[in-house]
Amino acid sequence: xxxxxxxxxxHHFADGRRALGDVSFQISPGERVALVGPxxxxxxxxxxxxxxxxxxxxxxxxxxxxxxxxxKVRRKLPEVIGVVFQSPDDQLFSATVLEDVAFGPLNxxxxxxxxxxxxxxxxxxxxxxxxxxxxxxxxxxGEKRRAALAGVLAMKPSILLLDEPxxxxxxxxxxxxxxxxxxxxxxxxxxxxxxxxxxxxxxRSIVLDGGRIAADGPTQELLANAELMEAHGLEVPYxxx
Length: 241
Fold this sequence. Notes:
Layout: E1 4-12, E2 18-27, E3 32-36, H1 43-50, E4 61-63, E5 66-67, E6 81-84, H2 97-107, H3 112-125, H4 141-153, E7 159-163, H5 171-183, E8 187-191, H6 195-201, E9 204-209, E10 212-218, H7 219-223, H8 226-231
Parallel strand pairs: 3-8, 3-9, 6-7, 7-8
Antiparallel strand pairs: 1-2, 1-4, 4-5, 9-10
Helix pairs in contact: 2-3, 2-4, 3-4
């Protein structure tokens, strides 16, 4: 069974503008795939459809065998797919970091003790031990981003969606993030403009532009294609020039 299967996915905004058109791809369990493209390409809208936040037609998005548009199974999606959005402030809301990271496991039915254990394990992985009693909103930008990721990892999803995860990270935080990504066993779809990070973490890339897939293939091959990169508002990474 495929981890993610997207078939002729189309999505329109309320005003009728098309955000996605005829998008099709599939991702095998354990794959790490980058989603790259210019601003406004439809990457965030695609993520929202994959995790069931935006409604859609049946049969277009199947996540671990669950149809993301089926209201009967949508409540099960958080058990298998987790998403970290561009702005960590959209996901951090509890009084302390520990409470915030434990919130997801609690909602999945874990006991308070098990939820705290899951949260501490996730905080350890992200280098946030010592921040448990701090207010999430008093963290640095990089710490907030790692805390948001910790909250999703604590739920132990088999599929992880990361939307611009290296944004606002200093070089050390970025290196730590790359190490974390490389150590994950989950299926990963990574939307980012950080093409150097893509080279280090994702063997496969999908180029999305104007709501449509422009290319899908081996990362090094696609990102070294100067004509392809220029046509879709991207640049060949320095390492490939």
